[in-house]
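Re: [ENG-882] Designed sequences occasionally contain unexpected residues at chain ends

Forwarding the minimal case from QA. Structure tokens:
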């Protein structure tokens, strides 16, 4: 007669999701859970003890003493029967005499289970996730103190699973906070550098504005004076030439001030292309009239399209 597996609990989908939410399946061994199976084996005086979690298609052992495997198929799991009655300990004194297990491969073959007792591990939502169970290769009974101890260990295991989940959540949150702090520090450094740059630009702007204001006042006075000279001095011709040169210098100075102010108002350097020949040619008359008679000026502007940035 073939072995008949345990049916699924009515809340199987919710139960399986609760187990998966813990993130404990296939995790590395942990001492807290290893201590549970050592205590269960010692208190119940059996060679095998397990913290068994019943997954959708398997039972996986978070902790194990007395067996060399980490999981078995759910169809063979005694614990799959134990989670059907979450409020009690499932006790099988002799599996060969129990119709649920007498044809099981785990009874007829290694590890030749005879005695089994499993206390369900209940989470805070009431789902039975697995058991703390003990196994022996010979028939026996479970005493009342051993039953009480097994239930206590199951409750302790449920608390450890919840504590483990909270610890991992805290660690993940701490990692996120560290990343956010690093990003905030980076942004703060950028903001500080921008603030220092803004202060430098602001200071430069204030100085430039002050100079430009004073320089414009001078240019306005010079321009007015030269215009008066030009109006009143039609002769000699040299006076008119000097006034033209002065007015040309005033216009060039005004352009210089405007260029300076426009550069200050920009957040980044203003890159422009300057035609060197055109600039020198525009300054020709100013330079000629500025030089004394002992200085001879010559211009060689034959190189075409000479420009600088």
């Amino acid at each position: 007669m073939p072995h008949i597996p345990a049916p699924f609990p009515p809340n199987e989908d919710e139960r399986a999701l609760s187990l998966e939410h813990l993130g404990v399946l296939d995790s590395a061994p942990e001492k807290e859970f290893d201590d549970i199976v050592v205590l269960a084996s010692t208190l119940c005086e059996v060679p095998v003890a397990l913290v068994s979690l019943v997954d959708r298609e398997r039972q996986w052992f978070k902790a194990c003493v007395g067996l060399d495997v980490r999981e078995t198929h759910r169809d063979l799991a005694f614990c799959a029967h134990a989670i059907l009655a979450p409020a009690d300990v499932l006790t099988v004194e002799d599996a060969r005499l129990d119709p649920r297990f007498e044809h099981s491969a785990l009874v007829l073959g290694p590890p030749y289970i005879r005695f089994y007792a499993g206390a369900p591990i209940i989470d805070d939502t009431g789902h039975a996730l697995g058991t703390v169970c003990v196994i022996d290769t010979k028939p026996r009974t479970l005493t009342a103190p051993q039953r009480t101890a097994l239930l206590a260990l199951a409750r302790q295991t449920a608390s450890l699973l919840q504590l483990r989940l909270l610890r991992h959540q805290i660690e993940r949150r701490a990692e996120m906070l560290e990343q956010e702090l690093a990003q905030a520090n980076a942004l703060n450094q950028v903001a500080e550098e921008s603030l220092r740059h803004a202060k430098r630009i602001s200071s430069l702007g204030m100085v430039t504005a002050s100079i430009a204001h004073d320089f414009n006042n001078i240019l306005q006075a010079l321009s007015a004076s030269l215009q008066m000279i030009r109006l009143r001095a039609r002769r000699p011709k040299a006076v008119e030439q000097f006034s033209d040169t002065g007015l040309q210098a005033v216009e060039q100075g005004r352009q210089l001030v405007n260029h300076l102010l426009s550069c200050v108002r920009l957040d980044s350097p203003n890159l422009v292309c300057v035609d060197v020949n055109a600039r020198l040619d525009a300054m020709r008359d100013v330079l000629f009239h500025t030089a004394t008679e002992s200085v001879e000026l010559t211009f060689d502007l034959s190189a075409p399209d000479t420009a600088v940035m």
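QA comment: On inspection the terminal residues look reasonable. Residues 180 and 281 are 60 Å apart (CA to CA). Proposing we downgrade this to a documentation issue.
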